Amino acid sequence: MILKNNKYNVIGTRPIRHDGLEKVTGKAVYSADVQLPNMSYGAILRSPYAHARIVSIDTSEAEKLSGVFGVITGKDFQTGIDKDIEIGEGIANFKWDSMNIMARDKVVYVGHAVAAVAAKDRNTGLEALKRIKVDYEELTPVLSVDEAVKKDSVVIQDDFMGVEINGEMSSKNVADYFQFNFGDTDKGFRESDYVIEKEYTMPMVHQGYIEPHVAVAQWGEDGRLTLWTSTQGAFPVRTQTAGILGMPESRVRVMPAEIGGGFGGKTRVYLTPLAAMLSKKSNRPVKIVMDRSSVFDATGPAPGGKIKIKIGVTKDMKIKSAYSDLRLEGGAFGGSAVGASAKCVFACYDIENTKIDGYDLVVNKPKSAAYRAPGSPQVSFAMEVTIDEICSKNGWDPLEFRIKNASKEGTRRGDGPKFPKIGNIDVLDAVNKSDHWNSEKPKSKKGKLIGRGIASGYWMNGGGKSSVTISLNDDGTVTLLEGSSDIGGSRPSIAMQAAEILGLNATEMFPRIPDTDGVGYNGMTGGSRTTFATGWAAVNAARNMIKELKNRLSMIWEIEIEQIAFNNGNFSSKADSELSINIRDLAKKLDGTGGAVSAVGSVDLDSSTHGFGTHIVDLEIDPETGKTDIIKYTAVQDVGRAIHPSYVEGQIQGGAAQGIGWALNEEYYIDSKGKMLNSSYLDYRMPTALDLPMIDTILVENENPEQPFGVRGVGEVPICPPLGAISNAIKDALGIRLNDLPMKPSVILKALSEK
Q: Rounded to 5 degrees, what are φ and ψ at 4?
């Protein structure tokens, strides 16, 4: 559903996706499809311990094995400089990332790489790993945020110093601490008629991408490194790999390939430095493909942790004061999304007094990574359940409460900045008018318990650097080169924006993603930035092309450039109505005017675009089994301007599905030794099409004034509301509040038994 009429020719239409034919026919090339002459295959030896010192590593027997071309350990890598870089959905550090991809003196999570081999085939590589002898001194692991903050906790990283909190030094496992505070929260709580304080816990969860991590590396005789890898950002891969290996970025070339899902989990490097070093050592190209258990054990999940929320409200349903204590697991090297959590926790509400304490905590688990609105689903869950509890205890309508307290233009976000024009209230109004909200709850069937829930969520969509190059072909079509990995329809959404400016059809645009030598710098595809930022770069490129075409046409018509007008693909003379030509015909007449016409557009955007969504869910629970089934689901979201509505709907539906899985089933189930016990898709229970109804969407188009077509990113927001909405629906069904994730059948059965 689109709430506003479309005023464009291309924007808002639903053309066939440019990459569709290759993908449905199996012709699309992924990194694992890359085959090079003389290629060897990499295999990685990983730690069975969550925390242990490496006493010794003996690789001699592996090196003697026929068919083994090279063996590497931590000794083959330099320490790396202690330098932070922004990678789009988080911070990378060359030193700590180097230690993460290959252990040095200590292993700090189960799955931590300790050695790798290059061999003639996979089986030979696995046999070589068996012959590597590693002597470990096992240490006590730290596996929870509660344990991590204790001053006498086991130290995981000897170089970490802890931080100062209220004048005292913390545990060394506190990688970072911050506080945001405005107004007077204590005074606000005293002036409140009702004060509620709740605590919530959640485990790490996985992004659930289909394609595992892959890297192919070829270290050339000229000293240049060429990489093929499954990534959300070829340029950040270049930067990270070069930084870890201590070589100039100009010596690294990253080749494009299709990507089988990422959702934030493919923003960091895990394999490219290993494949590169093996290639250098063996003097041949090397391919490494992770198996599924290694993906779970050794790549970044979304952080788990503990969140406290305290809210004070007045009798007239106004939030007077709010406090949050955010403690998220950064994994063994720190770097959780707690900073983003702080920006999101109170963002949906206009609150006079707020205070936020944030802790980034080191635990003996894989280093956390981004997962679709990193840090926001966790705090959305905690905040929205607390809001529902306030409404439940006071007999208030939960939607009315949200409307009355909704953030709007001028509202100060919890970390300080004031909102510009936003669509939060528009979203809530659309919910209030929706068929789902105004319908009766479904009737109970065969003793099942029925519940309805509602929740809101927020993400501050990103900007950053993007570059696009377009070229006009002789037949009037346009080739568009952009460096943003396409993980959700960005090739069409970017090409469509350029097409609208040029007055062409979407089918006349041919978007391509070249290697890092073939286009200007593009930041990570993530954070809901790509259609917004790279689309803006495409608009700039199209406008620059029109300027150049006016220049060429002035030669042909022998008139001043200022006398040429352009509208909807047509050039005309302002002075002579007989002179007119469309862009397609002009493309055939450019010989003798200076050759082929191309143009570049680039942006470096500091602005963010602020996305809001509210979801409604109906569910039923079988009291005999504890199983929860979603029976109706509606996601309402401010999308700014829906460039390609089908893609927008798909993004929202996909995010909602992932949030549903996070709420009901998904978790890193880790034993007391730090080992994940469900590291396969047979045991890590994600919802499938058989588990879900059609997810209905309502697209609210509140145009973003900071983008030429009013675009707001859409990919992050929809994963935020489902966790709280489902918890609130379960409370409605059971009369029992569940404050911990996941709300799986065993948890529900236990709650029912204790009722």
A: -130, 150
Distance, in Å, from the CA atom of 315 to the CA atom of 318, rounded to the nearest integer, reads: 7
Contacts for 567 with CB less than 8 Å, ≥ 6 apart = 503
Instruction: Report cis status (omega within 30 of 0) of the bond before 742.
Output: yes
Contacts (Cβ under 8 Å, ≥6 apart) of 622: 447, 448, 629
Count CB-CB contacts under 10 A for residue 166. Answer: 7
Provide the token pair at 495. 């090409």
Residue ranges per structural domain of the chain: 20-27+462-605, 34-139+210-261+266-298, 305-461+608-754
Helix, strand, coil percentages for the chain (3-state, nearest 5): 30, 25, 45
d(CA 431, CA 424): 11
Contact 100, 332 (CB under 8 A): yes
Structure tokens at 553: 């046409």
Same fold flag, 20-27+462-605 and 305-461+608-754:
yes
pLDDT tens-digit series, residues 325-366: 999 999 999 999 999 999 999 999 999 999 999 999 999 999
For residue 350, count other CB atoms closer than 10 A to its CB: 17
DSSP string covering 533-554:
IIHHHHHHHHHHHHHHHHHHHH
pLDDT at 133: 98
Half-sphere exposure (CA, 13 Å, Cβ side) for 382?
Answer: 32
**Range 20-27+462-605: architecture per CATH:** 2-Layer Sandwich (3.30)
In angstroms, the CA 386 to CA 197 distance is 8
Contact call for residues 99 and 269 (beta carbons, < 8 A)? no
Helices 234-245/272-282 angle, 10° precision: 60
Token reading at 152: 């006498």
Distance from C-alpha of 87 to C-alpha of 555, rounded to nearest angstrom: 45
Buried b (16+ CB within 10 A) or exposed e, 11-23: bbbebebbbeeee
How many residues belong to the chain?
Answer: 755
Using the CB atoms, write b or e for 523-554: b if 16+ within 10 Å: bbbbbbbbbbbbbbbbbbbbbbbbeebbebbb
**pLDDT beneath 70: ranges in the chain:** 1-5
Q: What's domain 34-139+210-261+266-298's superfamily in CATH?
A: Aldehyde oxidase/xanthine dehydrogenase, a/b hammerhead (3.90.1170.50)
Which pLDDT score is estimated for 87?
83
Task: Specify the pairing of strand 113-119 against strand 40-46.
Answer: antiparallel
Q: What is the pLDDT of residues 499-542, one digit of tens each?
A: 999 999 999 999 999 999 999 999 999 989 999 999 999 999 99
Confidence (pLDDT) at 4: 63
* Dihedral angle, C-alpha 635, 641, 643, 646, nearest 10 °: 20
| Dihedral Cα 502, 508, 511, 517, nearest 10 deg | -70
**What is the strand order of the sheet 478-482 is part of?**
509-512, 478-482, 464-472, 598-605
Strand pairing class (225-229; 214-219): antiparallel
Q: Which two tokens stand for residue 582?
A: 């469309």
State the CATH class of domain 305-461+608-754.
alpha beta
Facing residues of 620 across strands?
Answer: 450, 629
> How far apart are the two ends of the chain, measured CA to CA in Å?
41
CB 37 within 8 A of CB 284: no
Give the separation between CA 253 and CA 239, rounded to whole angstroms.
10
**Rounded distance between C-alpha atoms, residue 538 and residue 523, angstroms:** 14
Q: Characterize the bridge pairing of strands 225-229 and 252-255.
A: parallel
Its sign, for the CA torsion 124, 126, 131, 132, is positive
Maximum C-alpha span of the chain = 87
